[in-house]
Amino acid sequence: MKFLILGSTGPTGILLVREALTVYQDITLVLYVRSPQKLPEDIRTNSRCIVIQGELDDESAIDQATQGVDIVLSALGPSQFNQPPGTPLAHAYSRIIEIMKKNNVNRLLALGTASIEDEADRFNLVYYSMVKSVSVSMRNAYKDIRAIGAVIRASELEHWTIIRVPVLSNDPSREVIAGYIGDGKIKNHISLNRAGFAAFMIEEISKKQWDRKAPLLVSS
After folding, report:
1. pLDDT tens digits, the chain, 220 residues: what are they?
2. What is the dihedral of CA 51, 173, 116, 17, to 10 degrees?
3. Contacts with 16 (C-beta within 8 Å, 6 or more apart), sequence order
4. Which of 94, 129, 162, 183 sits between 20 and 30 A of 54, alpha carbons compared?
5. How far apart are CA 21 and CA 47, in angstroms?
């Protein structure tokens, strides 16, 4: 199998790469990155990893990266306070998805946040307050992540999953709860360990439990 991973130089993406390499022994990972030097040495020198350097607006490089790929995994996310206006990441997703479809890549698992609404969500004061605060203090990031959700849902990809996250932490625990805001399972948990996110996304590849859905993931 061959996976393309986006956002693999960030703290969440690095864990995602390592989790994929651990779970799938016969895998080839294509890592599409802006700055290869930011990859840890154990990943950069791994024979099962192919590193392709490029920007998110480089259609030729993205096309190269998606050749022969089975699934695209994305840990891309906007910068909290320095995100430029104009929803650039949502535009990048539109570009990436069109190239995926051209190359017959029909499955995307992507990072989202609680700011992306879902029809299965119910009112929860803690999450309402958190998202409201984000919409004011991180306006550009808020608008971009919501636009990403809209782009993926409207993409006509055969298979997609948006894994929504609250506040990310570096705790090594991998135990998570998946559900929807206000469903009685998530309760008022507002943090998620990055290790848990990585494990959940890689497990979802084979489980397909959340196909064409957008669960919220929290640490248990």
Report:
1. 999 999 999 999 999 999 999 999 999 999 999 999 999 999 999 999 999 999 999 999 999 999 999 999 999 999 888 899 999 999 999 999 999 999 999 999 999 999 999 999 999 999 999 999 999 999 999 999 999 999 999 999 999 999 999 999 999 999 999 999 999 999 999 999 999 999 999 999 999 999 999 999 999 8
2. 10
3. 5, 7, 8, 73, 75, 197, 198, 201, 202
4. 162
5. 11
Q: What are phi and psi of 77, to 5 degrees?
A: -155, 155
The dihedral region occupied by 187, where left means phi > 0, alpha psi between -120 and 50, and beta the remainder, is left
> For tokens 């994929």, what's the residue?
20
Q: State whether the Cα torsion 181-185-186-188 is positive or negative.
A: positive
CB 76 within 8 A of CB 64: no
Query: d(Cα 65, Cα 155) in Å, to the nearest integer?
Result: 19
- Tell me the residue ranges of DSSP E strands in the chain: 2-6, 28-33, 49-53, 71-74, 107-113, 159-165, 167-169, 176-179, 191-193, 216-219
> pTM for the complete prediction?
0.96
Q: 157: closest CA among 71, 59, 32?
A: 71
In terms of DSSP bridges, do strands 107-113 and 167-169 run parallel, antiparallel, or are they unpaired?
unpaired
Alpha-carbon span 19 to 15, nearest angstrom: 6
Would you call 84 helix, strand, or coil by DSSP?
A: coil
